[in-house]
Amino acid sequence: MTGAGSLDWYDGAELSKDGNIVTVGVNYRLGAFGFLHYPGISNGLMGISDILAALTWVQDHIAHFGGDPDQVTVMGQSAGAHAIMCLLAMGEARGLFQRAVLQSVPASLAPLSEAKALEYGNRLLDILNVDQSDPKEITAQLITLPTAQIIQASGKLAKEIERFGQITLPFMPVIDSLSTTDHFIEMAAKGAGEAGIELIAGTNREEANILLGNLKALDPALVRERFVALTGKEETIELYRRRRPGSTIIEQVSDLVTDYTFLFPALRLAEAVHEAGSRTWLYQFDWAPYGSPFKACHGIELPFVFGNFEAYKDVPILKGAIPEVVADLTTAVRRAWLGFIQTGNPGVSIPWPVYEPAQRQTMRYASVIGTAGDLAEINRAGVR
User: Which residues form the Carboxylesterase type B domain (predicted)?
Assistant: First the structure.
C-alpha cells in the first residue's frame, strides 16, 4: 500500500560494497494502481507484473553492470516477501532467480480471491463516485481523477475493512487459485522445490508490536474473540500470559498476531519446502534496544541487512541502541545474507544448519547469536 524501492531505508550501496555484488532496487505499483481487480479494467496483478518485468530486465542487462544472470537472489521484507511467495507459485517467474530471502513474510495472508477483490474494487469506485453502469466508461472516469484522490479513497476503504488483531488490506495480489493460506504455502513451496530454489526465511520476535503500539486499552470481548478465532479456545489467553511474565494484554495480543500471521505460517512454509525437496535456513530476530517498547518489531532487522543506519537515525524502534552491539550484529547478519547470496551457504561465519522438521534448528539473532534446536517449538509451547 505504501513505500518505494528508492527510499534510503533500502539503499543497497553498502551491501554491494561489502559483498562485491550488484544490488537492484525494484519498484512496483502499489495500492489500487498495482492491485485493483475489476473485469475489463485491471487484473489485480499489475504490481507483480512490474516485478516480473524488473527481473526480466535483470536477466537481459545485469551482466553489463558486473552481475551474473544465473546467480540472482531475490530479497523481500513483509509485502516484498509476500510477493516472492507469489513468484514462487507462478510459472512466469521460473528461471528468473535462483535463491530467495524472505524477511517477515506474512504467509498467512493469501492472495485475494477474484470475488473478494471485486467487492473491494466496487467499494473503491463507490467512494470515488465513479458511475459503474457502463464498464466501458469506468476507465475514462478513473483517468480524470487526481492520483491523490484515489490514494485518499484507498485509505478510507482500508479503514472501513480493518478489523481488530488482523492485517486486512483492500489491495493485494489477486490470484484466485492461491486464495487460501494452505494452498498459497503449498504452491509456493512446490514452486521452490521444482525450480531448486533455496530460501532464507524468518521472522522477528515481536512483529506485531509496531502494529499495535498505539493502542492504550483493548475491549476484552474483542480480545477473547480474536484468541478464539485463531487458537480455537479462549483459555489460550492464559497460556500466552504465562509465556511472557508480567505482560500486558496488548503484549499478549501482539504475540498472538505475531505467531499466527508470521511465525507459524513461516514454519509451515519451511516444512513444505523441505517436503518439496528444497532447503530453507530459518531465523528469528530477537534483538532490540534495551527497554524499547517496540521490542524486536516488524522491520527492525532491515538496517542490519543493508548496513545503512544513517537512514534510520530518527526511527524510534532503534532509539537507545548501543553502537558497538549494532556494529557486531550487523556484521553477523550481513555475512550470513551475503554468504547465502554468493555461495548458497549462510553459515560461512557462524554455523547455521539447514532447517529440518525433526530438529527445527533456527538461527537466533539476539544478545547472543547462535542456532537453537526446536526454538520454534519453545516459542509456541502450550499454544498450538
Answer: 3-364
